[in-house]
Amino acid sequence: MNPHPMAGFDRVCFLKPVIKRANIEVGEYTYYDDPHEPEAFEDKNVLYHYDFTGDRLVIGRFCAIATGVTFIMNGANHALDGISTYPFQIFGGGWEAGFEESSLDSGYRGDTIVGHDVWIGRQAVIMPGVRIGNGAIIASHSVVTRDVPDYGIVAGNPVELKKKRFDGPTIAALLQIAWWDWPVEKISRHVNALRAGDVAALRRAR
What is the pLDDT of residues 130-148, one digit of tens each? Predict the structure, then answer.
């Protein structure tokens, strides 16, 4: 897959071909838009992601990620059980003696999961361990500190659910259709139904 699908517009980058880390998984056709080295997404936009922490960032297919979106991973956590949160142990010089790695567990939130067909607006911050549902929209400059439901629209710091994009039965139907799992040839045949919101046509195509 060509990481730059738009000729002469290298700021748009499909992420799957450029991701190298084993602890990051990105689905096909998910793109990042940035005028400055979008290929460096895993270094510039995924922060505090250390192998020893063991957490993963998983992003689904057909997601749109705007400039400056940041994923904060569990390696950013500091021990919370003592009087000070200062990370003495990382500087050595004897300060590491007696440090218990388990003291970091109180802040561990697990894997960060982004569903399929998610739109994340400019400069949004995704905190560790949140799960963003399929079809969700994250407003620009939002700070996502909690899970986002399927087809939810959230905004704010911390985010609040503003509304759902569709009613309950429609959301249930779309999750069952799961068009993002279709072969790309099938998606291409039904792209007008996707654009038009023609759920009935998608059901028939399923």
Answer: 999 999 999 999 999 999 9
Token output for 198: 């023609």
CA of residue 4 relative to chain centroid, distance: 20
Say which of 78, 116, 141, 190 is annotated catalytic: 78
**For the CA atoms of 148, 12, 31, 25, what is the dihedral angle to 10 degrees?**
-110
Parent domain of 191: 166-206
Residue 141 bears catalytic tag:
no
Domain count, the chain: 2
- 40 and 94 within one domain: yes
pLDDT in tens, 38-87: 999 999 999 999 988 899 999 999 999 999 999 999 999 888 888 998 98
Cα 163 to Cα 153: distance, rounded to the nearest angstrom: 6
CB 168 within 8 A of CB 150: no
Of all residues in the chain, what percent are helix, strand and coil, respectively (each to 5)?
Answer: 30, 20, 50
